[in-house]
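Training component of the fellowship. As part of building independent skills, the fellow (R.M.) carried out the full modelling exercise for a liganded target. The chosen ligand was 1-O-phosphono-alpha-D-glucopyranose. The inputs are recorded below so that the supervisory panel can assess the work.
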Amino acid sequence: MAAKSIKKAVIPAAGLGTRFLPATKAVPKELLPIVDIPVIQLIVEEAVASGIEDIIFVTGRGKNKILDHFDDAPELEQKLMALGKEDLAKKLKKTCSLAKIVTVRQQEPRGLGDAVLSTKELVGDEPFLVLLGDDLVDSARPCARQMVEVYAEYQKSVVALMRVPEEEVPLFGICGGNSLGERTYDLDTMVEKPSVQDAPSNLGIVGRYVLEPSIFKYLEETELDEDGQLQLTDAMARMMKVEGFIGYEFTGDHYDAGDKFGFLQANLAYALKRRDIAPRLRAYLRDLVQRH
Ligand code: G1P
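Fellow's submitted model of the complex:
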């Protein structure tokens, strides 16, 4: 049977961004920039570089600016052209034509599982990618592409994993399972944010998933947790028991862009890869470290 190709991606973007207040009072956290590119644009670019054609944003109150970012801006482009800034105008135009974007609104923030469930009709009956904007992965081979390739090989849902330090185990969904080969696991345990004692391993879930459409059925059957949240990990754990689930330790540098320190790390790392900024930044950082 030919491998089902993955053409749709879901990007949840309804979170309140409380960790970045006051910056996120009027600006959605997804639009905070890594150097000069909003986090969500990096995520969309990763999806597109992984074969995605249709993007479904799950948004909520105060998130309209995200759509503006991906909308055509002819007046701005014309002004840039008149100023001789053609490259910049072209860059903006490219951002608008990256993919077909649709949105679904999450009425209440009821967790990641609920955000994914709200895309059921739009996704339909095909496997799809989920990418979380808090997780940035810088890799020559985009993380989402790696996931799509693992899916093509096993034809089962796949979740991205990375080894996390013990003290960070309670911040992640954690998986356990048997090794299938280099970097791949046949998973038998998934627990959302366990204590260190209850964790089956230190293999933490990173926000890249390829899910079979049957996940919607499992989400509908899953109960809310004690905080009233529908956890995607809980539904995935149910699915795993019936259909199996592959874990994949991706290659690349991971940044938690949803955390202040991770966000700064990502900004520095991405800036140090930019030819227009890196030499000055490197010299500045050296000087700064000497002075402090
Ligand atoms: C979510 C998932 C968690 C995963 C994490 C990765 O948690 O529920 O399993 O490890 O993303 O970023 P959140 O960080 O949104 O609370």
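The panel noted the following from the submitted structure. Residues 278-291 form the longest helix (14 residues). The chain has eleven helices and 13 strands.
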